[in-house]
């Protein structure tokens, strides 16, 4: 929905330019916090690429996720490899969806969100659908995959920062509990994921927990 603000010229003269700027900023903040990621107003700290924008197929089915969730689970894709442009990351998203839906027989791409080396968030199942990324934790977590193989090296700094901002946004919007626990995939499933380098990195982040 587009919000159009019409301010009379006389009102501008009365308020002055600086006061008007503050008014408009407060108006936008007040009107851009619906519980939907499709309103671009609420995406203030990172680029967001919707399913439509990266060329996703429709899910075969969906199951609703109960909010707020107590866990955030971090993954790496391993394959596809790291991507650093919108075009490459969109291709990586389609590749993951093909593998999950066609090869694995899942209803959709498994992750709730993905983050690319371009620093953008790519919509997977989103906030509202149960993912397929961590057995036993799908119904109580948001799964975030960092596109690439992060066993021996870290993702770019902008990719790591975007993950933190995405989690913070989820807390602010009520999808993730403020006292959530941050986990690496390997903590709940026998796997290398999210890669040794990335796992060591997230173990230094706020809310990381060894206590599951």
UniProtKB/TrEMBL annotation:
Does this UniProt record's set of keywords contain Iron?
A: no
Q: Where does the N-acetylmuramoyl-L-alanine amidase domain start and stop, copy by copy?
A: 58-195
Keyword Heme in record: no
At the top level, the lineage of the source is Eukaryota
Residue limits of the Peptidoglycan recognition protein family domain? 46-189
Task: Provide this UniProt record's keywords sorted from A to Z.
Answer: Disulfide bond, Immunity, Innate immunity, Signal
Say which family it is in: Belongs to the N-acetylmuramoyl-L-alanine amidase 2 family.
Protein's name according to its UniProt entry: Peptidoglycan-recognition protein
């Amino acid at each position: 929905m587009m919000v159009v603000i019409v301010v009379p010229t006389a009102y501008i003269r009365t308020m002055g330019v600086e006061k008007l700027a503050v008014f408009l900023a407060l108006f936008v903040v007040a009107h851009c916090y619906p519980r939907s990621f499709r309103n671009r107003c609420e995406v203030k700290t990172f680029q967001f690429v919707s399913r439509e924008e990266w060329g996703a197929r429709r899910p075969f089915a969906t199951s609703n996720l109960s909010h707020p969730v107590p866990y955030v689970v971090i993954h790496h894709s391993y394959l596809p490899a790291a991507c650093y442009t919108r075009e490459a990351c969109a291709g990586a998203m389609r590749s993951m969806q093909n593998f999950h839906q066609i090869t694995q027989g899942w209803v959709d791409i498994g992750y709730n969100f993905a983050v690319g080396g371009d620093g953008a968030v790519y919509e997977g199942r989103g906030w509202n659908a149960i993912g397929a990324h961590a057995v036993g934790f799908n119904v109580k977590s948001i799964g975030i995959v960092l596109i690439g193989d992060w066993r021996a090296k870290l993702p770019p700094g902008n990719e790591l920062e975007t993950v933190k901002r995405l989690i913070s946004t989820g807390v602010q919007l009520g999808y993730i509990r403020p006292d959530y626990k941050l986990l690496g995939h390997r903590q709940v499933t026998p796997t290398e994921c999210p890669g040794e380098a990335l796992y060591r990195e997230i173990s230094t982040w706020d809310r990381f927990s060894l206590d599951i």
